[in-house]
TrEMBL record:
SMART domains: TPR. Residues 33-320 form the Beta-lactamase-related domain. Residues 1-17 form the signal peptide. GO terms for molecular function: hydrolase activity. TPR repeats lie at residues 412-445. This is Serine hydrolase. Keywords: Hydrolase, Signal, TPR repeat. Coiled coil: none annotated.
Length: 458
């Protein structure tokens, strides 16, 4: 009787431990939806079990059609995984080498194609200029532009520039090698054999069960994208895809490592960024994507059996804040309810402010709007810092990142961002200093470790 009583006491506790995160997640997402901060679909898996799987909001701007978990979403840059994995699948099959030059497969391109390797395309270090989005309406027009492109933006391998012509050329190379359209190759080799049955490539306006993206003013995005090859997925297929990658079911561990660890540290790779492997196991990878008002985030931690998938058709720029809250809930830690993005408050004035003026203005806004905006999240200033860094305002970015390290002195991520800004300035002593601080706070930061070795060897 005593043993039966003990079992009776233990079992409800276990069930309660499983139910509690789901309830907290539900409450958090309900508040986010009420505040206009999330419209989309979410899946949370922990210890290989689905903890939360929910459609929240509407599939259209008119808000007449409720979302269901069967709806498919554009996932922005995450869809680039399909061409990157396809390239490495062909490598594994001996159909090409990463050291092959682009002209071997696309001989109609100018002389610069003899210098660009497939490895450069995957690492965004090719120097090929970006797509001319304003005057390109088809793959044919984009190829015509490339044929008439006389020179690269920089020598291949010397710099990093994240742009979509790297992706476009990967897709065309896959077509030349296989003899079939890229979309057909994805269906035939990546989706159908692996039970991914609902994904759709380049969906049209009339396609059923595809969420339509819209802005806060109720304007609907066009489904037309100038260059083709974009795979839209629902939650179940997205999760299947992530598990195929982390379990090496499509490409080898060696090929996965190449795509996971950035060719250029602290930058994007074929599988996003912050990727880490130990021996032949993936420790972590994250990938985000944006396409107009679509936004998606995939976060995988195989050691914990944990995957977070967020897809929205009404971009609020807060998916990382939502993920941070989700991770804290799963870990039994206090969490912050996501708020509106601070960047929307800053944008009107930021072009006219510099250095300490920016942080002073930030402090002023914080006093006025703290209750409704995410001033308590490290991502707020980090987003601003990267905005400035991308604008080549390196000193202003350093001022912002430095201030963020004062606000979040225990975050390895903010020190990593500060180090990256110093590296962009070619201030190697400070870059080394802050990369080391980042690794001290976050020992899993493999990109920082790689950069420390390079900086110490200079």
């Amino acid at each position: 009787m005593k043993m039966l009583l003990l079992i009776g006491l233990v079992f409800p506790t276990t069930v309660f431990a499983q139910v509690l995160p789901a309830k907290k997640l539900q409450t958090m997402f309900e508040k986010a939806a009420q505040n206009g901060l999330f419209n989309g679909n979410v899946m949370v898996v922990d210890q290989h079990k689905v903890v939360y799987n929910k459609a929240i909001g509407y599939a259209d701007a008119a808000k007449t059609t409720p979302l269901t978990t069967d709806y498919r979403f554009h996932i922005g840059s995450i869809a680039k995984e399909f061409n990157a994995v396809a390239i490495m699948l062909l490598v594994d099959r001996g159909k090409l080498k990463l050291t092959d030059h682009v002209d071997q497969y696309l001989p109609e391109l100018p002389q610069w194609s003899k210098k660009v390797t497939i490895k450069d395309l995957l690492g965004y270090t090719s120097g090929v200029p970006d797509v001319q989005w304003k005057n390109v309406k088809s793959d044919a027009e984009n190829m015509a532009n490339l044929i008439h492109t006389e020179k690269l933006d920089f020598e291949p391998g010397s710099q990093y520039a994240y742009n979509n012509n790297n992706v476009f050329l990967q897709r065309r190379i896959i077509e030349r090698i296989t003899g079939i359209p890229f979309q057909d190759f994805v269906q035939k080799e990546l989706l159908i054999p692996n039970g991914i049955t609902h994904a759709i490539i380049d969906p049209k306006e009339t396609e059923p069960l595809v969420a339509h993206a819209f802005d806060d003013k109720g304007n609907t995005d066009s489904m037309e994208i100038p260059i083709s090859g974009w795979t839209a997925v629902n939650l179940n297929d997205f999760y299947k895809w992530s598990q195929l990658l982390v379990n090496f079911k499509i490409i080898s561990p060696e090929s996965t490592r190449f795509l996971l660890i950035p060719y250029t540290p602290s930058r994007q790779s074929g599988l996003g960024f912050k990727g880490a492997m130990k021996d032949r196991k993936i420790i972590n990878f994250e990938h985000d994507g944006t396409s107009r008002n679509y936004q998606a985030l995939l976060v995988c931690n195989p050691e914990k059996g944990r995957t977070v998938i967020l897809m929205t058709n009404n971009k609020q720029g807060n998916l990382y804040d939502l993920n941070t809250a989700i991770q804290n809930i799963l870990d039994g830690k206090p969490f912050l309810q996501p708020k509106k993005q601070v960047m929307s408050l800053l944008q009107n004035e930021i072009e006219n402010l510099h250095g300490n003026e920016i942080t002073a203005y930030y402090q002023q806004l914080k006093k006025q709007h703290q209750d409704n905006y995410a001033f308590d999240a490290e991502a707020s200033l980090n987003t601003l810092g990267y905005y400035l860094l991308n604008k080549k305002r390196t000193d202003d970015a350093i001022a912002v990142f430095l201030y963020n390290t004062q606000l979040f002195p225990k975050s390895g991520n903010v020190f990593d961002s500060l180090a990256e800004a110093y590296l962009a300035k070619e201030d190697h002593p400070n870059a080394l200093k802050y990369y080391k601080l980042s690794v001290k706070l976050d020992p899993k930061n493999e990109s920082a470790k790689s950069l420390i070795k390079k900086l110490e060897n200079k």
